[in-house]
Amino acid sequence: MMLKALIFDLDGVITDTAHLHFLAWKSVAAELGIAIDERMNHALKGISRMASLERILQFGGKATTFSETQKIVIATRKNERYVALLSSLGPDAILPGIAPLLAELKKRGIKAGLASASLNAPRILASLNLLDAFDFCADASRITHPKPHPEIFLAACTGLGVVPEECIGVEDAQAGIDAINVCGMLSIGIGASLNNAGLLLSSTEELTWARIAGLLDYTDKATAVNR
Ligand code: G6P
Ligand code: MG
Description:
The chain is 47% helix and 10% strand. It is built from 9 helices and 6 strands; from the N terminus they run E-H-H-H-H-H-E-H-E-H-E-H-E-E-H. A 6-stranded parallel sheet has the order 3-2-1-4-5-6, sandwiched between helices. Strand 4 (167-171), helix 8 (174-183) and strand 5 (186-190) form a beta-alpha-beta unit. The two termini are 14 Å apart. One of its GO terms (molecular function) is sugar-phosphatase activity. Pfam families: Hydrolase (PF00702). Its cofactor is Mg(2+).
């Protein structure tokens, strides 16, 4: 395999904003009389803002309580609180191993892309001082099918000018791993309890160039044997 690009999820891979999403949803949900816990939050990983709200309302038995307009007001309120929490984010919030890996990719002429469902992705990359590290960021506002549909990863490939077979995707959510696999890209999972990842690592600290090169080598040998 001729590796031309790595395509990254943002939340849980580049930085960890899951807790900030949780705090914002928790306060908004509490005002609706719904108590959410960390387990609920885990189920919202990789899920878009409106879909997250639907899940929370369903969880609280209020799936049909609000009109579409009211739901937009609630989601906007959540986002305002989330964005306020993001002001605390700086380059020190980049997860371990990510900055050296991005530098290594640049050195090797391998492109870096972003495939995040977050409409706040550009703002977050700017806070982390990482805008220049990415060659292309897929625009979540133009994506019509959420992960596990492959649309956002395919949009990232198109923007980078590569085909999926030349890429590795990195994800911390099952929906993301499934999306990467459907594309025909190699997948790397970060964290426990992910199924069907081409390589599963326990944290971003393990996401080194050496591990990636090892995966490429292994895949090439397996392909040669199967031929
Ligand atoms: C990521 C997070 C989700 C979040 C989604 C949308 O995928 O993992 O928890 O709901 O982005 O984020 P946004 O910033 O657009 O509300
Ligand atoms: Mg994620």
